[in-house]
Automatic annotation (TrEMBL):
Keyword hit for Nucleotide-binding: yes
InterPro entries on file: P-loop_NTPase, Small_GTP-bd, Small_GTPase
Gene3D superfamilies listed in its UniProt record: P-loop containing nucleotide triphosphate hydrolases
Region (Disordered) location: 1-21
Organism: Dillenia turbinata
Keywords: Nucleotide-binding
PROSITE patterns xref list: RAB, RAS, RHO
PANTHER family hit by this protein: PTHR47978
CDD domains referenced in this protein's UniProt entry, alphabetically: Rab5_related
Keyword Nucleotide-binding among UniProt keywords: yes
Record protein name field: Small GTPase
Length: 200
């Protein structure tokens, strides 16, 4: 079971595509960025996207097959807008070979683990290394411990996530797609960390 962010989305612009350029900017006030989610299967990547884009949490929806695409625009206080073109990948091993198609050229990578699963924490570190080797050199990376609502089942201390993220120059946040805790904050912090093009 999982969140299906793969439902057709009429509001999505499909112009980005797999090969869209990093920070494909319409103008200096309106950024358009390609964002990829990576992490073990079941950590909640699709639920995070669904929560962010639709404000919903659907515990009964489907597992992501391959990858799916959604977009969402946010407005920042300085009156700039950031349009995220979100590629939600499937975590299953059989799709791992496809991952470079999604993270290549991505301006932002969100690497997700589940705070109740040390295995998913290890897998997240694998993705960070993969991105360091093969991603864009100036990629903005977020390290996300999801399912923060499951405190009683926690197996990965927040400090471990924080330490790892700091060592690797990423920002760290714990989220819950279920309660919506820190989901908007995650994308706002990313938006603020994006390199800004010079005003034209
Ligand atoms: N308690 C809790 N469950 C979650 C959360 N996010 C996702 N889930 C559940 O975790 C399972 C996998 O979620 P999904 O988004 O499909 O994971 P993905 O494979 O990483 O895309 C589903 O059963 C979700 O209902 C969360 O923040 N809290
Ligand atoms: Mg999924």
């Amino acid at each position: 079971m999982g969140c299906a962010s793969s439902l057709p989305d009429r509001n999505s612009a499909r112009s980005g595509g797999l090969n869209s350029e990093v920070n494909n900017v319409s103008d200096s006030k309106n950024l358009r960025v390609k964002l990829v989610l990576l992490g073990d299967s079941g950590v909640g990547k699709s639920c995070i996207v669904l929560r962010f884009v639709r404000g919903q949490f659907d515990p009964t929806s489907k597992v992501t097959v391959g990858a799916s695409f959604l977009s969402q625009t946010i407005a920042l206080q300085d009156s700039t807008t950031v349009k995220f073109e979100i590629w939600d990948t499937a975590g299953q091993e059989r799709y791992a070979a496809l991952a470079p198609l999604y993270y290549r050229g991505a301006a932002v990578a969100v690497v997700v683990y589940d705070i109740t699963s040390p295995e998913s924490f290890n897998k997240a570190q694998y993705w960070v290394k993969e991105l360091q080797k093969h991603g864009s050199p100036d990629i903005v990376m977020a390290f996300v411990g999801n399912k923060a609502d499951l405190q009683e089942k926690r197996e990965v201390p927040a400090q471990d996530g924080m330490d790892y993220a700091e060592k690797n120059g990423m920002f760290f946040i714990e989220t819950s797609a279920k309660t919506a805790d820190n989901i908007n904050e995650l994308f706002e912090v990313i938006a603020k960390r994006l390199p800004r093009p010079p005003p034209s």
